[in-house]
Amino acid sequence: MQYDFSSNEYSPEQKAYAARVYNILRETKSETPLAAVVTFGCQQNVSDSQRIRGMLSLMGYEFTEDLSKADFIIFNTCAVREHAEDRVFGNVGAVKKYKRQRKGMIIAVCGCMAQQEHVSRRFKESYPYVDMVFGTGVTHRLPEFVYKKLTGTKRIFENELNNDPVIEGIPVNRDDVFKGFVPVMYGCDNFCTYCIVPYVRGRERSRKPQEIIKEVTDMVNSGYKEIMLLGQNVNSYGKGLDEDINFAKLLRMVNDIPGDFRIRFMTSHPKDCTEELLLAMRDSKKVERHLHLPVQAGSDRILKIMNRRYTAEKYLSLIEKARSLMPDITFTSDIIVGFPGETYEDFKQTIELVKKVRYSSLFTFIYSPRKGTPAAEMPDPVTREEKGRWFSELLAVQDKIQKEKEEENIGKTVRVLCEEYDDGILSGKASNMAQISFAGEKDFIGSFKNVKITSYDHGLKGEITE
Ligand code: SAH
Ligand code: SF4
Ligand code: F3S
């Protein structure tokens, strides 16, 4: 278990609540109190859950994955698509029986879903055994909420959207010991018309560069080998800060931190992906040769209604520019199929774009209407079945490209961070995100090895070279 404290101190008020909770739990329980943190959604949520665990540690909780044994269960939720929300309702419904069996169990729901008023109301009305529901704006007040619950408040509902500067100093309890997330900014100001994120995460707020540098330096000094810089749109990093900084400059600063580690980042919005950023990537040897650049659609008409603020041509010229600066770079992307009003002709342009870019991997989604977003009000005449057929067509095109892209790696020798081990076989990723498996020892996990890629058989295979 790894704890990090940044240079700024976490709210003294919340620390005092945490200390009071600690004492109450010690006085009222003979065994160590256990908490379970269940996370849905993107890396941002995974990162937030590491801070939730940090706060729970301060309060004296230890952790379990067995929900039936937990004294405190918290669901950190995602609202990006209907399917994500349905899973949360299902999972929260399933713990009702544990609460009956375990006296004093507290159930909490937080994160992006909980930030929405209509969802908070649904928990209030239909899930009486849920004790607290609070949104992303007040996560740092968890110690206060637990204290209030333990001292008699029946139920707590908070979904004020907080656009204040980032709260620093919350202890982080990471899961991995060799790769870790470092948020650089929170929120999103882009308001793509399909997307709920700006409504549930609030306005863009950047962390101060010195906070980020300190966190990464501490991680590298304690052995971390891969740092993932996180934000809904890292390319707008720095807006609103007093310092003369942007994401390209931050990347160079992180690259200058001494140590053998590598740097990844996501997500980059194509409209803000500048030549300055590509040059910073090229010059920064620790930054991976991979760019996640979500395109969403290939039709200019659809991109415009999505409010993405770039054209397919502009996007393709970015890809070309990046390839001319870094010939070995690979790209991944997110694509939405069946945006309201999208026709088969529009969709075909997405296929054309995918064929031109040749992504090494794609995250594809069927459009899901989100209450409160402009797209949810737009006419959407194409049936789900039809969208499903388009979706399969896209997957078939991508599968073929992906296999060919993987095979292009055969014969190369690459530096791999060993991540997993099973029965004599290690696996990990190269700098271009290619996933490779090879024979090796369990002890190699968390270290870099040079691997020669020898073949492709349901994935790339290789062998360690000196
Ligand atoms: N900030 C990131 C990621 C946002 S959410 C970005 O801008 O790329 C991750 C992905 O979910 C999006 O890129 C988009 O492809 C998808 N997504 C968002 N809203 C959606 C919706 N309503 N229906 C289907 N997919 C959606
Ligand atoms: Fe959503 Fe667009 Fe912001 Fe990404 S950039 S989080 S897709 S609004
Ligand atoms: Fe989901 Fe919130 Fe991330 S809606 S995708 S967890 S920012």
How would you characterize this protein structure?
This protein is an alpha/beta fold and 466 residues long. It has three domains: 12-158, 3-Layer(aba) Sandwich (Rossmann fold); 179-407, tm_1862 like domain (pyruvate-formate lyase- activating enzyme), CATH 3.80.30; 413-464, OB fold (Dihydrolipoamide Acetyltransferase, E2P) (Beta Barrel). Helix content is 35%, strand content 22%. It has 14 helices and 21 strands. The protein has helices at 12-28, 43-58, 82-94, 96-101, 117-126, 142-150, 197-201, 209-221, 247-255, 275-283, 300-305, 312-325, 344-357, 384-407, and strands at 2-4, 34-39, 62-63, 72-77, 106-111, 132-134, 156-158, 172-174, 179-183, 185-186, 205-206, 226-230, 262-266, 290-292, 330-337, 361-366, 413-422, 425-429, 435-439, 448-456, 460-464. The strands form six sheets. The chain has a six-stranded parallel beta sheet, with helices on both faces. Helix 9 (247-255) runs parallel beside helix 10 (275-283) and helix 10 (275-283) runs parallel beside helix 12. It is globular and about 65 Å long. Bound molecules: S-adenosyl-L-homocysteine, iron/sulfur cluster and FE3-S4 cluster (F3S). FE3-S4 cluster (F3S) binds at residues 41-42, 44-45, 78-80, 112, 196-197, 200-201.
